[in-house]
């Protein structure tokens, strides 16, 4: 594998292997089994350590995402970059206006450049963080351009 391959290509290849999701709940053996399954995919794809972290984060759900975001208390050597990446992963519009949400999205996406380098991924991640009613309207419009997504969300709001 080329060292400089595009992250979105790697993510597509990874997802084709149908790796398991992990939500942080269930029996204590779930986490080690999940890691073993991911390691198989990582071996097939020849992943670097940094790529492994990024890909594993894609498979986190629910309380496991919260753990990822707070793990710096358990592993203090985690960098500020990784904390900002986790913050980006958790970003949701919540009570923010579309403008405020977009500003946060733009600020935090700088810490996760590989997650937004593919325009499709960027639009999807932005859309998925919108309030549920707004998100469902955006899904039905099938918008594939980030600027258009942002403008339509502002208009609907």
How do you describe this structure in short?
The chain is mainly alpha-helical and 157 residues long.
Description:
This protein has 157 residues and is mostly helical. It has 2 domains: 1-90, no CATH class; 91-157. It contains 10 helices and no strands. It has helices at 7-16, 30-45, 49-58, 63-70, 80-90, 98-109, 113-116, 119-129, 132-141, 146-156. Helix 4 packs antiparallel against helix 5 (80-90). The longest helix has 16 residues, at 30-45. It starts with 6 loop residues before the first helix and ends with a helix.
Note the main attributes of this structure.
single chain, 157 residues, mainly alpha, 2 domains, 10 helices, globular
Rg measurement, Å: 17 Å
> Helix and strand string, N-terminal first?
HHHHHHHHHH
Structural category: mainly alpha
Q: What would the principal axes of the Cα set say about the shape?
A: globular
Rounded average pLDDT: 83
Low-confidence stretches: none
Domains, number = 2
How much of the residues is beta strand, in percent? under 5%
User: How many β-strands, per DSSP?
Assistant: 0
Give the count of helical stretches: 10
The portion of residues assigned to helices is 55-70%
Sheet with the most strands?
Answer: none
Separation of the first and last Cα atoms: 45 Å
């Amino acid at each position: 594998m080329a060292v400089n391959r595009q992250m979105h290509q790697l993510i597509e290849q990874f997802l084709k292997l149908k790796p398991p999701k992990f939500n942080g709940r269930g029996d204590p053996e779930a986490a080690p089994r999940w890691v073993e399954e991911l390691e198989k995919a990582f071996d097939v794809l020849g992943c670097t350590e940094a790529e492994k972290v990024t890909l594993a984060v894609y498979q986190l759900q629910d309380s496991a995402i919260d753990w990822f975001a707070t793990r710096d208390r358990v592993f203090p050597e985690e960098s500020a970059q990784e904390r900002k990446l986790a913050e980006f992963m958790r970003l949701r519009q919540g009570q923010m206006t579309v403008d405020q949400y977009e500003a946060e999205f733009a600020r935090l996406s700088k810490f996760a450049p590989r997650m937004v380098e593919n325009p499709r991924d960027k639009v999807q991640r932005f859309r998925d963080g919108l309030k549920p009613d707004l998100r469902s309207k955006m899904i039905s419009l099938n918008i594939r351009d980030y600027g258009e997504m942002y403008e339509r969300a502002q208009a609907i709001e």
